[in-house]
Amino acid sequence: MAIPQHLTKIVATIGPASRSPNVFRRMVEAGVTVARLNFSHGSYADHAKTITMIREVSEEMDVPITILQDLQGPKIRVGELPPTGIKLIEGNSITLIPIDPNQTSDRHYADAITIDYPYVAEEATIGTQILLADGIFELKVTGLEGNAVYCEVIKGGILTSHKGVNFPSLNLRLPSMTEKDQQDLAFGLAQGVDWISLSFVRQAADVKRLKSLIAEHGKTDISIIAKIEKPQAIANLEEIIAVVDGIMVARGDLGVEMPPERVPMIQKHIIRRCNEVGIPVITATQMLESMIQNPRPTRAEASDVANAIMDGTDAVMLSGESAVGDYPVQAVEMMTRIASEVEKDASFINYPASRTDEVHAISEALHAISDVIDFRCIVAFTATGYTAILASKERLKLPIIALTPSINVYHRLNLVWGVKPLLLEQEVNSFEMVIQQVESYLIGRNLASQGDRVLIVGGIPMGVQGGTNFLKIHILS
């Protein structure tokens, strides 16, 4: 398969519109590198079938496809309301009360809205902002009595049952992982997913908790993405970045929890920090939202995708566009065209090494050498993925061919900017084998031709994270 023309990766959420092998195959041909499984929806049987399909298409097409399991996280919701909903009238009063766990069934009240969070009256204060239905409706707390929270309607409309509830200013007494998430995690690990994204992250301890649960299942090579969607996560961003493998800018919930005008600069800041430390970052939510129903995006959406790419995001993500939309393949094709066009002229920033050691020094040298000599590609030998990720951090406009003997690393690296993983049949334990494998794989797969100059980086022996110890300019013969 030819080296892709675009270096930015494309994440597609798999759902009813895209889980057939024929449609998914066309999406991969169009540019999808990561398949996201949203565990807010679907049964285990559905997800198992989808994972099998993805792996079969990957093997059939001889391309790596990263599987990203997205855990749902806790969600506070409105209880039962009349079938037609209730009308929230601006300026009027409404009362929130917790659902009574002793009731045999949820029921609605004529003068109140029930929610499934028992501590609302303990944590709210006069003036607390409450958002309903992804921020469409807004309430302000005016009084507290017992377990009742009295509110004024600031933005009204028709509210229906089970809509989401957000408290932007409160640090809620909720775990980042529910019992459902723990069950979903066990399922995903048993199915062999490559990355796990954690919702409702507020501090580094949330990520560490997930790591400990993964370890309890005997897994050591699963990478974690922290979804940044809460104000507390922004406040604790540095400590979260220090313990996680990747970041997702989850702009949907972030835009509900924070003023929308703040989100663009927060997005840029998160991408920059991830680029500086060298971990992958995904920009997500509503990137080509109108393509759920239309074959072409709005100009604003195209510009949104382009700006994220210019900022240095590793990947751009499709949600409803590919999961339930009418044009999943066309949405991927549009992402690919935008990425290909932007990358021609974009000037990506090369940040200084984040550590002062031999490995980072070699990585920095890639940039200096490529400024002087033209190369067909960079070849990174890596058993853990570390060398390829460091090479990606340099943001050179060169494809990075990552040769790895690990099937897990092979799948996992396809999320990383500019990296095209290839699976080695054996580990490379001598410099002579390095040259032999470069010649065999690049020429044999039509990734390069005789006479092309390539830049090789890696570590001998393989298998040691942080063991990168050589850099070689080589002309293919």
Automatic annotation (TrEMBL):
Entry EC no(s): 2.7.1.40
Record has Magnesium as a keyword: yes
Keywords tagged on the record: ATP-binding, Glycolysis, Kinase, Magnesium, Metal-binding, Nucleotide-binding, Pyruvate, Transferase
Domain Pyruvate kinase C-terminal: 360-474
Single annotated GO MF: kinase activity
Reaction equation(s) it catalyzes: pyruvate + ATP = phosphoenolpyruvate + ADP + H(+)
InterPro entries named in the record: Pyr_Knase, Pyrv/PenolPyrv_kinase-like_dom, Pyrv_kinase-like_dom_sf, Pyrv_Knase-like_insert_dom_sf, Pyrv_Knase_AS, Pyrv_Knase_brl, Pyrv_Knase_C, Pyrv_Knase_C_sf
Cofactor(s), by name: K(+)
Name this protein carries in UniProt: Pyruvate kinase
Organism encoding this protein: Pseudanabaena yagii GIHE-NHR1
Organism classification: Bacteria, Bacillati, Cyanobacteriota, Cyanophyceae, Pseudanabaenales
